[in-house]
Design brief:
The chain has 14 helices and twelve strands. It has 363 residues and is α/β, with parallel strands linked by helices. It folds into two domains: 274 residues, P-loop containing nucleotide triphosphate hydrolases (Rossmann fold); 64 residues, Roll (Ubiquitin-like (UB roll)). The strands form three sheets. The chain has a six-stranded mixed β-sheet, sandwiched between helices. The protein has a three-stranded mixed β-sheet with strand order 3-9-8, with helices on both faces. Strands 11-10-12 form a three-stranded antiparallel β-sheet. The two termini are 26 Å apart. The structure holds guanosine-5'-diphosphate. It comes from Geoalkalibacter ferrihydriticus DSM 17813.
């Protein structure tokens, strides 16, 4: 599955948000380093289109698609040099596909800040510096190793060294690896290097209970910083999300309405994570189950079929496809067929977000 890592300094609200996200109930305490083991949680991706499909098809089951969140603890100033939990966080963070960076924007004298005061820009820089140093370290070691091996004249290794050197230049300037000047081919090589700062980042401003709209100047500054990096920022209040997460159905809707929110911050965060990972959703809509499936944008029909079962991919013949809007407008598959809105697509078809798919395959 696709993984989104949650990072941030201690006491910024990572565990609070992670627990609310997964309702995992792991401990959240008011001191640094409380989450020692990385917590992995699988969350449902909210999608109102599923309800619309279910209303038409009347299935026995409705299954949303999921996304994994990993709460990564131990990132403090000096972590790349062994402070705090030291390098432990590195192994976990290298395995994620995208990063949600939680930044403390709430003031609360009862919650200790590791640096004594709340300052989102400084905090972001501390984390960025640690991640940068960690990558620099692994890039340098890699260059040394590759240079030794490259004496044999391997073309791919030469290309890799060239990429590593460009990445080192960026890191030396304090830029993340994703900002290195690389062409498309080099970018493919970069993806193989498992560098932390090559991953896309989403900023999450954790604001105080009294500032749900993020009016605090901290948030404005953070927004500027995110915009300068071309990154997205969402504003949520961890404490309130924790309360929302405990409510269900109508109570939840009512509470959100009282707060003047259209949807929970967590739902926004999950969808932002999904977008950040370049993921889209297609549906299968049968009477047994209506279900959402996750693929990377640009996936062709056989690859999409393979998410359901590898046999679907191996024996792929064709797909019957109805766009979500057509499916709803025609009140289901039969109606869409009659209106000529069902398409037959072959193995080169690039699946679109919202497609309702039915696969034909050989067994
Ligand atoms: P972590 O170390 O980043 O995982 O931080 P925690 O989630 O454990 O939170 C540290 C402390 O900050 C806990 O006492 C939380 O209750 C508190 N906290 C988290 N989010 C908020 C918030 O939005 N407002 C306030 N006032 N406190 C919060």
């Amino acid at each position: 599955g696709f993984k989104c890592g949650i990072v941030g300094l201690p006491n910024v609200g990572k565990s609070t948000i992670f627990n609310a996200l997964t309702s995992a109930g792991a401990e959240s305490a008011n001191y640094p380093f409380c989450t020692i083991e990385p917590n992995v949680g699988i969350v449902s991706v909210p999608d109102p289109r599923l309800d619309a499909l279910a209303e038409i098809v009347n299935p026995q089951k409705v299954l949303p698609t999921t996304l994994e969140f990993v709460d990564i603890a131990g990132l403090v100033k000096g972590a790349s040099k062994g402070e705090g939990l030291g390098n432990q966080f590195l192994g976990h963070i290298r395995k994620v596909d995208a990063i949600a960076h939680i930044v403390r924007c709430f003031e609360d004298d009862n919650v200790v800040h590791v640096d004594g005061s709340v300052d989102p820009i400084r905090d972001v820089e501390v984390i960025q510096t640690e991640l940068n140093l960690a990558d620099l370290d692994s890039v340098e070691r890699r260059i040394q190793r590759s240079e030794k091996q490259a004496r044999s004249g391997d073309k791919k290794l030469q290309a890799e060294i060239a990429v590593l050197q460009k990445v080192r230049t960026a890191l030396d300037l304090g830029l993340p690896a994703r900002k290195a000047e690389l062409d498309d081919e080099e970018r493919l090589l970069l993806n193989e290097l498992q560098l932390i700062t090559a991953r896309p980042v989403l900023y999450v401003a954790n604001v105080g209970e009294g500032d749900l709209e993020g009016r605090h100047p901290f948030v404005a500054r953070l927004k500027e910083q995110a915009a300068a990096e071309g990154a997205e920022l969402i504003v949520i209040c961890g404490r309130i999300e924790a309360e929302v997460a405990e409510l269900g159905g109508e109570d939840k809707a009512e509470f959100l309405q009282e707060l003047g929110l259209a949807e929970s911050g967590l739902d926004r965060m999950i969808r932002a994570g999904y977008d950040l990972l370049g993921l889209i959703t297609y549906f299968t809509a049968g009477v047994k189950e209506v279900r959402a499936w996750t693929i990377s944008r640009g996936t062709r029909a056989p690859g999409a079929a393979g998410v359901i079962h590898t046999d679907f991919e191996k024996g792929f013949i064709r797909a019957e496809v109805i766009a979500f809007a057509d499916f709803v407008r025609s009140r289901g598959e039969q109606g869409a067929r009659e209106k000529g809105l069902m398409r037959l697509e072959g193995k080169d078809y690039v699946v679109q977000d919202g497609d309702v798919m039915h696969f034909r395959f050989n067994v």
